[in-house]
Amino acid sequence: MAAASRPFAVARIDHVVLRCRDVNAMLEFYGEVLGLEVAKRNERIGLIHLRAGSAMVDLIPMADPPADAGESASTAERRNMDHLCLRIQPFDLPRLQAYFGAHGITPGELRVRFGAEGDGASFYIDDPEGNRVELKGPSTGV
Predict the structure, then answer these.
(1) Domain 3-139 has CATH 3.10.180.10
(2) Which pLDDT band, with edges at 50, 70 and 90, does 92 fall under?
(3) 62 within 8 A of 22, measured Cβ to Cβ
(4) Are 10 and 55 in contact (CB under 8 A)?
(5) In DSSP terms, which residues pair with 57 in a beta bridge?
(6) H helices of 4-140, where?
């Protein structure tokens, strides 16, 4: 498919989420060793968002998530990387749904999620090997 027919362009990687056996050791490495700063925490699920330039590295424990953690909940099948998030533009949901539908891909639930630019609409798809990819629109300014 020619690039001109795609209804979006990837602007950059928004964030990467790492599932951790030892969140404290990972926080020490990414925070102290590499110098990433904590941008936000979600204590309820143990999620730590670390600023990495214009992107984020998120750390989440491998332990069972709360039942309402949603489709981004970590599972044994996803190994150590939970998902890759790509910031796309424009974020025209009907065109995106038509585009992915034409490729036999059904996007997951549209929700507002936190990322490197703040809260914004996003949904998940899976790559051919089962890796979760989040496609995220611009920040809503929230």
Answers:
(1) yes
(2) very high
(3) no
(4) no
(5) 16, 50
(6) 23-27, 93-102
